[in-house]
Amino acid sequence: MQTLKDRPFALIGVNVGGNAKNLKDVMTKEDVTWRTFADMGDAGQGAIAARWNLTSTPTLYVLDARGVIRHKWLGAPGAEALDAALETLIREAEADSEKAPK
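RE: above sequence
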């Protein structure tokens, strides 16, 4: 896949369980450069996990440009599946952008 810089794409992380201090340490150690939320709540499930019906981790969601969940994987989907899903949705977003009135 080509670089995602300057393309209609955003990556966020949601960490459930643990604590915000530990998350910050892991992000620093692993050089995580994308926005990541600490989703803490009762019994380890915060508001994001509850709303998205998160049942296990890791879970990966891919949303389209309108915020609709188009893909959901329990566990790692593999680079090829993820690349294909992202490329399709990015092309759709770019095509929609070209059609928009200016």
